[in-house]
Amino acid sequence: MLDDTIAEIRNLRVEFQTKDGPVLGVEDVSFEVRPGETVCVVGESGSGKSVSSLSLMRLVEYGGGKIAGGHLLFNRADGEQIDLAETPASLMRTIRGNEIGMIFQEPMTALNPVFTVGRQLTEGLRLHKKLSRKEAQARALELLRQVRIPEPERRLTQYPHELSGGMRQRVVIAMALACEPRLLIADEPTTALDVTIQAEILALMDRLKRETGTAVMFITHDMAVVAQMADRVVVMFRGNKVEEGAVEEIFANPKHDYTRALLAAVPRLGEMSGTDYPRPMRLLGQGDKQADPILGTGEPLLEVRNLVTRFPVKGGMLRKTVANVHAVEDVSFTVNKGETLSLVGESGCGKSSVGRSLLRLVEPQSGEIRLAGKDVMAQTPDGLRNMRRDMQMIFQDPFASLNPQMRLMEQVAEPLRNFGIGSRSEMQDKVASLFDRVELPRSFLRRYPHELSGGQRQRIAIARALALNPSLIVADEAVSALDVSVQAQVLNLMMELQADLGLSYLFISHDMAVVERVSHHVGVMYLGRLVEIGPRRAVFENPQHPYTQALMQAVPVADPTLRKEEKDLNFKPIPSPIHPIGHEPEASKYQEVAPGHHVLITDCGY
């Protein structure tokens, strides 16, 4: 191991014991990380990239894994070199969180639900840095400001469940940065974040790396993030390293077939410029035939007018409503038959609340929602139940939306059973044909959700949403947690279903490249309001609202020659959406800048 290397993985082999014998998680993997360098480890789910990082932290043992061979060399701050694979548990406790920091992928499981954010942030500082309670509190506040959390003083006293997914992820990042580690391992740290916050977190990590010489091992499946962050790239496939090289070399001249397939599946911002209609991606190995564009009909299916959704904030001994969260404020749009309207914006901008309000999974305060001419707001519970046959939802987290105790066959058949559609054998035929539709083998019918990968689970969620032949599907971040190749397949599947069945989608996402690929129309949301809405081409190629322009500026591009500089990012802090009872904001007023392209002229705080 060279003196200028902070960590080196040498011939690592990790095994997991199962009922059917040992399974290899990683086989003979070697690479190193130097000070001030970012090494991105890329690959699909199950390729072994997270196993490599958990081995360095010696956490793989707590997940049923065993380091069966190889060395994990680490140069400590005092110059001592140790092999982490053989380090006693007591020494590992002083290294973890202090000299090696880790940002975990799933923020809800990385945070303790029974302790406040403040207590969890100060714990490592008091343990490793021996700070007093007051000093640790001040440092925690500074860290929350660094990761751009609004109202940081208030957040310190809150519990994880009171924060949005994006905010929780920022708290986890702040915890990992707290002790200024020599090596920072980031496992998919920006998967749950919006482009603006992602851009700032990446810039923050980049600045930290330059200022402190921290080495960063960055695990991701987002090739645009790799292009933005990496100095070197390690490509993994089925537990093996298949390619390693400088980031420019990997993107410009990939040698391995798998690397080429991975790069071909990346939707790139600007790919659809000059075209008016979405079309499925052309994936490697599918020939040169270009799919037909999806034209849509221009005939309205869903009409939303002046939608307002607010959530009460309780306080005091009697838990009275003391204020309201203005989640959706005076939003109007139309979704046409066979077309896709995408809603984009940051965490907490109200886009998911819009989707849930349409199905009345949350009750709107006011507004009008019409589906195929029928008034959704006027429906009785029975009427609403029948209307939901026409409106279905695909949720962000397929694991949370599937029942872990039911076989997949029963879960996809459940909507049919609920509405008494077909005999038992007809139901089985319908479910089998739905599995064919979403390209899952029929042998999966008897499996349980935990036996599938993330992408396969999301396909089950799509199959279940299609069971009742709906006319509208609300897809809430339906592909954000998937690997690029699986994401490309699922997006193509959704678009082919749209072309075949005439489906309409309300597509909620923060991934601008995906939105550009699938949309007919795009609405940009900020703090509960639509600040810009229009045809996809108009919004992407000629953004008018300053917030839309900042959003486009923040999107990382899958090309290392087009990296964003920190000075290019000019975001303002997001004001609080909480207002006292009786506060009535002014109505949304729009200016039409081109046919169908409307921009908000009411002051929305940006």
UniProtKB/TrEMBL annotation:
Annotated GO MF terms: ATP binding; ATP hydrolysis activity
UniProt entry tagged with the keyword Cell membrane: yes
Membrane topology: Peripheral membrane protein
EC number: 7.4.2.10
Record-annotated ABC transporter domain positions: 9-263, 302-552
GO biological process: peptide transport; transmembrane transport
Cross-referenced NCBIfam families: PRK10419.1 (NF007739), PRK11308.1 (NF008453)
Name used for this protein in its record: Glutathione import ATP-binding protein GsiA
Naturally occurring in which organism (per UniProt): Pseudoprimorskyibacter insulae
